[in-house]
Structures are given as structure tokens and as C-alpha cells.
Amino acid sequence: MSEPYDSTVDTNDHIARVQQLLRQFAGILEERAIVHDRSKLVSPEKEVFDVVTPKLKALTYGSEEYKASLAEMGEALNHHYLVNSHHPQHYPNGIDGMNLFDLVEMFLDWKAATERHADGNIWTSIETNKDRFGISDQLAGILRNTAVGLRWQGWDKEN
Asked: Within a domain: residue 30?
């Protein structure tokens, strides 16, 4: 008669493998954190960001004035999108071209950007960008759930 199966070894192997994969994922995010938006510090972006960034801080995200300031950035902003894959504009098919690393960096970029505006709000940014980038209801829900999980300001209103 054979011994009953004990799943301990298989389960521990699975746990160890998931831990390894999570560390690999976190390592890639760490690498992205180091290089995030570095292109803003060199030409052709720096000169334009020096002029426009103070203007953007005073504007409401997504407003007509905000959009006009983005348009003023012209080729510098186009270059920024070209070399930074965490922007939907980097891809011909927008959000649908992104990977999970891009999405995480994009979302955290949005949060940091809201903190630079007097009236910045991650909840409003999610809704504005849902329309702006054609984000599905499902992905918008995941972003909101993540903000709740991080207990970002206003999270308790979403519960």
C-alpha cells in the first residue's frame, strides 16, 4: 500500500517559484524607477520642460488650458513619448500596446503628477485618462482598486 500524497514539497516548490518571479518583476520595476523620465533632463526636452512645467502646475489636468500647454511642447513632448514606454502615446495602439511594467509605471506616474497640481486628484485622473486613452472599464476598475489598496487620499470614498 502506498503512502498518502503529501503536497508539502510541491507547494513549497510552487511558493519558492512565485517568490522568484515576484523578485524578478520587482527588479525590473526597480530598473525602471532608476531611469524614469530621465529624458526630461536633456535636450530636446529639458529646455521645453523648463518653460512649460511651471505653467502646468497651475492648471487643472485635462482642462483646455492644460491641453494647450501640452500642444505648446511640440517636438519635445513627442520625443518624450517616443523614448518613454510608460506613456500610451509611445505605442501606435496606445494602452493596448503596453505591458504590465508600462501600466504600473504609468499609473504611478499619474499619481506623482497629481501631487504637483494644486487640484490634483488620482481619482479624477483615472476618469480623465479613461476617456483620453480609451481605457476599458475593467482596467479603470483595477486602477481604482489599486489606489484603494494603497490607501491614497480619497480611498475611503471609494469603499
From this structure: no
Sequence-ordered alpha helix ranges (H) in the chain:
8-35, 46-57, 64-83, 100-114, 122-133, 137-149, 155-158
Residues 58 and 104 in one domain: no
Q: Per-residue confidence at 158, pLDDT binned at 50, 70, 90? A: very low
pLDDT, residue 105, reads 98
Structural domains counted in the chain: 2
User: Quick check: 133 and 95 in contact, CB under 8 A?
Assistant: yes
Answer yes or no: do 62 and 96 share one domain: no
Give tens-digit pLDDT for 70-107: 999 999 999 999 999 999 999 999 999 999 999 999 99
Query: At which residue does the C-alpha cell 520587482 appear?
Result: 26
Distance CA 157, CA 159 (A): 6
**Whether residues 45 and 70 fall in one domain:** yes
Distance CA 135, CA 127 (A): 9
Question: In which domain, by residue range, is 124 found?
Answer: 92-154
Reported pTM: 0.91
